């Protein structure tokens, strides 16, 4: 069955339902998932520093660029390979972005900064960023409360992306944590359930 994309301008009741779904998912976190979620972006930051020989911006951008439609294990492998000179394993467009980043082009001029990869870059670069939220398919589905499977969620629409990011920010505010930490915790709960 084809699911309809969520509305770009959701009404207050729907937005509150999304906030509640995010918070409920966070409350299901085990102590281990909570701890890993809190440390997720600082650990990704350490990885970015390591694979890019201390160039945090480059390493963060390469990881973010290669994250689209990849699981975390494959994302790490491809990013490490790319920083070691072997750029492979993704679409031509993505590989072109990676090559440009590795050639020294500022990631802000390469990545779509208002979409998932741009926000993922910011979250890795600065795990204490209070604004950026990485909204991937899992973040979308858990907020909406429905698994869309391989269907397109149309997150390239800035209004839809921003509305969901605002829901994560609101849930994080209520729970007293950074939006990126909440997103990481809920991501772990969602993919491991």
Structure description:
By secondary structure, the chain is mainly α. It has helices at residues 12-27, 31-51, 56-65, 72-83, 92-102, 116-125, 137-144, 158-175, 179-191. Helix 2 (31-51) crosses helix 3, helix 3 (56-65) crosses helix 4 and helix 3 (56-65) runs antiparallel to helix 6 (116-125). It is globular, with a radius of gyration of 16 Å. The model has no long low-confidence stretch (mean pLDDT 96).
Topology:
Blueprint: H1 12-27, H2 31-51, H3 56-65, H4 72-83, H5 92-102, H6 116-125, H7 137-144, H8 158-175, H9 179-191
The best one-word shape is: globular
| The number of domains | 1
Helix/strand/pairing category: mainly alpha
Q: So how many helices?
A: 9
Short description:
This protein has helices spanning 12-27, 31-51, 56-65, 72-83, 92-102, 116-125, 137-144, 158-175, 179-191. With 193 residues, the protein is mostly helical. The radius of gyration is 16 Å and the shape is globular.
Feature tags:
single chain, 9 helices, 193 residues, mainly alpha
